[in-house]
Specification:
six-stranded mixed beta sheet; binds 1,4-dihydronicotinamide adenine dinucleotide; alpha/beta; glutamate dehydrogenase (NAD+) activity; Rossmann fold; five-stranded mixed beta sheet; globular; about 425 residues; 11 strands; nucleotide-binding; binds 2-oxoglutaric acid
Amino acid sequence: MSTYSGPVFDMARSQFETIADHIGIPQHERPRILLPKRAITVACPIHRDDGSIAVFEGYRVQHHLTFGPTKGGTRYAANVDLGEVAALAIWMSWKCALAGLPYGGAKGGIAVDPHSLSRRELEALSRRYMQEMIPFVGPQTDVPAPDMGTNEQVMAWFMDTYSMYQGQAVPEVVTGKPVAVGGTVGRREATGRGVAHLVGRAMERIGLDPRGATAIVQGYGNVGSVSALTLAEMGVRILGVSDHTACYHDPRGLDLAAIERHVAAHGSLAGFSTELAFDPKELLVQPCDVLVPAAVERVIDADVARRLRCRILAEGANGPTTPEADRVLAERDEIFVLPDILCNSGGVIVSYFEWVQDIQRLFWEEDEVKRRANQILDRAFHQVQERVQRERIPQRMAAMAIGVEKVLDGKRRRGLFP
Ligand SMILES: NC(=O)C1=CN([C@@H]2O[C@H](COP(=O)(O)OP(=O)(O)OC[C@H]3O[C@@H](n4cnc5c(N)ncnc54)[C@H](O)[C@@H]3O)[C@@H](O)[C@H]2O)C=CC1
Ligand SMILES: O=C(O)CCC(=O)C(=O)O
């Protein structure tokens, strides 16, 4: 019986087994590559505003320590559990290896709906979580960052809590911070910009002009909104957007500037329009050139995959496509899939730049951040395309094969203590 279970962990395991079979990893070596090195579970008690005490379960999974510290975001969502966090940590490992970053993967989370907390409660919970994590994280051990349900402010509270304990400012313990406390310019936008940049590369590959192309984006948070805005800057018309509160679709194209103003004023898409309201279950299967799932896992199952009407599937989210859906997409062979570990890697790439800048206390201009990020994204993209061509395998298999092989090679070279 494994410590890790649930549909998201099963998905990470199944993907790994497919790759392990493909590249021929012997059975006896597989657990060493797949199973997380460390998993920490903490209870985080806080005072609610009404004076009661609530206890929230928090997690941090550190997948492997072969190349340096572990790295990955922190998710606040009601259904977070250890299996999901472990899967997300494993995916971070393949992602960092594909991008050539000196990290293993990690992920953290708290089982809480952040919308159910006041700002004071959110701060108390974030500080308590980081306080509980102090023995297990650090600039050379494990460097957290934002993920779904967390943002720059939460990272600032993490950094402050850790720094107070050390008696000095330690900005390099966490990335995705506000620039005012050691964050890098361009991290907030990095994931969405990376998604759009790679969509541009995929368009070049299939001969699609971004001007006049169309896109649909599921999830209008950090990744989804920046993806939509950057695609729009490239000339792409955004036909549909959704978040956990609302879904809108307009075949003529949505007014993104108006949507941005609405979200800035109200915090979500709810209440933007009644005429454009659309069934969220049908959004993903509407015709468009580019589909960007940028919310939760497993939204594209085999049935949705059969009905997709996009030309490029750009996975802003982690794990949006199930292995069964992957098989359907491989059979259809008409949709260019930008797999999550490539497509959304702009975020961790710029987190790496933030960590490097913090350690050096030397900060870069935004142009340099963008240029270097695009250079790494392009390198990874071309390595994946080359492998797709050479081995006639789907994009996800190619991306994962590169990531898994790098981790395997590092482990083999470091050896096992006899
Ligand atoms: N923030 C980052 O730098 C990175 C995030 N990711 C992944 O991107 C995805 C989104 O993350 P963020 O944008 O950071 O989170 P966020 O918390 O900023 O935004 C998430 C968005 O998804 C929406 N959402 C939640 N459930 C939904 C549902 N069932 N249907 C439609 N919308 C729903 C929320 O309302 C919100 O608009 C996650 O899968 C995350 O792991 C991946 C790489 C980096
Ligand atoms: O920026 C980071 O360190 C990690 C971002 C993340 O959580 C992800 O890529 O899924």
